[in-house]
Structures are given as C-alpha cells and as structure tokens.
Design a protein that fits this description.
alpha+beta; 10 helices; Pdz3 Domain; Thrombin, subunit H; six-stranded antiparallel beta barrel; 13% helix; 3 domains
Length: 496
C-alpha cells in the first residue's frame, strides 16, 4: 500500500492528486464551474485581528483549552451537503444514501466549518461540498441557513461559503501556522461522527507532511483526535487562533490526523472571494531536492536549489530553454534553496507574470526569462460541482421548505384514504435535494401545522411561510397516511 493509500480524507475518500510536477504539474484543466460567482470588485474579507492570548503563558503553566473552546466554539458550524439522486453531481463514496430503498432520495454528507468574516463567510474543505446541490450550515445556537458556494480551491482542498445572516456572526481569529513547532499543543473543534461541537486536544507531531501532492502539500500532523465529520473544522492553538483546517486521517494508525496550514489558505482567500477560483503560476517542470549524493554523482555546480528532473513539452519551461539536470538557484534575483521554495515562489505569482530564473547548468551560471501560464488541475482534482452550482434548483417553484402543496379535495381524500375530519394541505411534490426531502417529507403527506400554526389551505401555508425569519427552523406537523400517525419534524427553510 502506498503512503497516499493509507491516508483518508476525513469525510470521504481522498482525492488522489498527481505527484511530481512543480507549480504546476497535473492534468489539463482550470476550474470552471465555480468561477464568476462574485463580482471582481468585491470588497476584501473582514478577517478578525489577533486578540490577546486566552492565558498568559508562564513556566510550567497548563494550557486552558476550556477557555479556548469557549471563545472559538460559537464560530464553528456544522456543514451538511446533499446531491440529488440522479447522478448529475457524479457522487462518489463520500456520499451516503439517505434512504436505500428510495432511488430518488438525495445523497448526503456532513462536515464542519468556521466563520472568518462577520458578514457570514466561512471556510470548510472542498471535498465536503464537492458535487453538492444543497449546502446547509447550522450554527451552535441551532439556527440553520442555506449556504452559497463562493469559491473552491481543490488543490489544497478548501472551499469558501457564505450565508445570508441578518446580523453579524461570531468569527474565529486566523493565526500564523508558519510559527508552529512540533510538540506544541493544539485542539480541534468539529462534528465527528455527528457528535456536534466536539473538542479534542493533542500536540503537533510533524510539520510539512506530504500526503497526496508532492508539490503543494505541507500538512500539519497532529495527534488531536480527528474523525469522520471533522473535515473543514478548525485546528486551534493555545491562544485561540486557527492555525489549520482539519482534513484527513491516517487509515493505518489511531490519532494521526492532518490539517491544511492556515498560512497556505489566507493568501488565496481574496481570489476565492472575487473570482471563485485560484490562479497559480506554472512552469511545467518536475523537481527534486539537491542532495550531496546527487551533487557528487551529477557534478552539479550548486549545493542547493531546485534540480530539474523533467520538462513537460509545450510549457513555459520548455519554451524558455530549461533542461533536465538544470539547477534553479534564484527567481528574480531572490535565492532559491530548495525545490519547495521554488514551488511556493512560482505558485504565488499570477499567470502571465514574466520572471528571470538563475540556473546552474554544467557548473555554468545562466539566466533564463520565463512567462508563466496558469497551473492546470490534475484530472483527479476536478470539482464535481452540481449543475445548479449549489443554487436553488430550477424546475418547479418549490417553496423555501422545498415542497409544493395543494388544497385537499374530495378526490385526493379518496385516493389517499384520508379521514374526512382531517384538515391541512397535501404535499404534492418535494425537491429531491431540498430541505423537506432531507427532513424525510414525502409527496402524499398531509401538512397540518407550521410552528403550531394550523394550516387549512394553501393560503394558510403561504402566510405561515411569510412569517418565517431567516435562519429559523420550522417545526412542521404532518400526517403520514402509511403509518396512520402524526409526525413532527424540523425543516430548515431556504433563505430567498
């Protein structure tokens, strides 16, 4: 079993990113589905500033993670995703079936997330919402909102979502993952296995772990317990600052989990906000580290830098004249000490940027000018966003509850064998990935009450809907003729 095969995405099967090509190896494909979801002149995100530490560290002092959790917990949310059962989102093993005996039922999945902007922007993992027709975000106080997908970055497995809250939401403060050290205490908050807002504590056991992609991966490894459902939740330091996004677990050992460094996420947030996707510079070369053994064996003229081991045809690298066994030692006169430094430097530049590379070839220093193109995504990292782009479904004009109703007439009563004394409206149709379907409402059910308000006609139904506030959960009383019983269920209405 390969190393990648032994590591699973926390919520689902792992996206098997291709290995080896720098700042932009991989298959031919820019993200298209999530582009232009927001205008290019969108204002910057209002990220929280660093607060004072939760505790004042002293020699031998214990870390008060109870205070840390109390501060951050309100900013952590549950993220539920659903895709219709018709296969448009090409769901993989990340989706579980809602009702195995119902081929039209939605597939559902669950993860975590956390707010980073008081207006309702939040972060989660891309694999949590990949292919979803509907995303629901539930806050710690029980309010639930339909979420809009703003942007995705499959290469680092990050998604930016937005809810339309009527008031500012609590936010988590973003820290600096570059200052972390192995052995440092951290905690994770999320919804493992459906146990919402669970807090686990551990230490950082390794920094810069490579799992799926040898170019961009730099995972934080921790022994803080992470399980299915933690995906997208925050990894938090002892001062209450988010230093990572929990995303994967080891399949071969207990209590070995991985988080995306937050310092890898912050630089791409504005691109996600403005463009719905991330553009990275691309050379088109495979790299390895210069080691003493390779330096002696190849007679390299440099003891550090990025050693070119492959040049992809028809790429900026080939057009610039780069060759295998060249050692790239600088970018625009800034020194490059390793292959990872070169990857980060090129990925941080916009496509179309022209850079000058310092190259050692056969112990001779050369200067090559390269115009970068855009890094393509590997085939395995292509988003599987639904055709609806996570916006309300087209077709029937479903209400915010995701259903349509009609008045009970004599013919309907006879067909459904309903008692003559039963009032209400009959459910005529249900959106396959809408809120009512997720609450297991079915066509033929009779809707009797909404939030204790009796429903005797479609006019009553529409009036009850108009009275719902954004984020308010509707308590719906139904009559199920199959079981000859009344059923009370909670439905999270769409905000429109």
């Amino acid at each position: 079993m390969t190393r990648a095969a032994g590591v699973f995405i926390v919520f689902a099967s792992v996206v098997g990113f291709l290995l080896g090509l720098v700042a932009a190896s991989g298959g031919p494909r820019p993200v298209t589905t999530a582009t232009a979801l927001h205008p290019a002149d969108a204002p910057p995100l209002n990220l929280a500033s660093h607060p004072a530490p939760v505790f004042a560290p002293t020699t031998g002092a214990a870390v008060d993670f109870a205070a840390v959790a109390a501060r951050v917990n309100a900013a952590v949310v549950n993220v539920d995703a659903a895709v219709r059962g018709d296969g448009r989102g090409r769901p993989g093993p990340r989706w579980r079936r809602d009702m195995v005996d119902d081929p039209g039922a939605p597939r559902e999945g669950s993860g975590s997330g956390f707010f980073i902007d008081p207006s309702g922007y939040l972060l989660t993992n891309f694999h949590v919402v990949d292919g979803a027709d509907r995303i629901t975000v539930t806050l710690v106080d029980g309010r639930a909102f339909r979420a809009e997908l703003v942007g995705v970055d499959p290469l680092i497995d990050v998604a930016l979502l937005k809810i339309n809250a009527t008031e500012d939401v609590p936010v988590a403060v973003l820290g600096d993952s570059q200052s972390l050290r192995p052995g440092q205490w951290v905690c994770a908050i999320g919804n493992p296995l459906g146990y919402v807002h669970s807090v686990t504590v551990g230490v950082i056991s390794f920094l810069g772990r490579k799992l799926f992609n040898s170019t961009l991966d730099a995972y934080i490894q921790t022994d803080a317990a992470i399980s299915l459902g933690n995906s997208g939740g925050p990894l938090i330091d002892s001062e209450g600052r988010v230093v990572g996004i929990t995303t994967a677990i080891s399949a071969q050992a207990a209590n070995i989990g991985f988080a995306i460094p937050i310092s890898q996420v912050v630089p791409v947030l504005q691109q996600l906000r403005e463009r719905g996707r991330v553009s990275r510079g691309y050379l088109g070369i495979g790299l390895t580290q210069v080691t003493p053994a390779l330096q002696r064996a190849l007679g390299l003229g440099a003891d550090r830098g990025a050693l070119v081991q492959e040049v992809t045809p028809e790429t900026p690298a080939e057009r610039s004249g780069l060759r295998a066994y060249d050692v790239i030692v600088s970018v625009d006169e800034l020194p490059v000490r390793s292959d990872e430094e070169l990857i980060r430097a090129i990925s941080a530049l916009a496509p179309g940027t022209t850079v000058r590379l310092g190259v050692m070839r056969d112990a001779e220093r050369r200067s090559l000018q390269v115009k970068l193109t855009e890094r393509p995504l590997p085939e395995s990292a292509r988003p599987r966003l639904a055709e609806s782009d996570v916006r309300p479904a087209s077709g029937p004009d479903f209400s915010p509850l995701g259903l349509t109703v009609r008045d009970l007439d004599r013919a309907t009563r006879m067909r459904l064998q309903l008692p003559d004394t039963l009032g209400g409206v009959v459910v005529a149709d249900v959106d396959a990935a809408g809120p009512a379907r997720l609450a297991r409402v079915r066509a033929g059910h009779v809707l009797l009450e909404i939030n204790r308000r009796r429903i005797s006609s479609t006019a009553d139904y529409l009036a009850a809907l108009a009275a719902l506030r954004p984020g308010e959960v509707a308590a719906v009383l139904l009559y199920d003729q199959a079981g000859d019983q009344r059923v009370l269920t909670a439905i999270v209405p769409d905000v429109r």
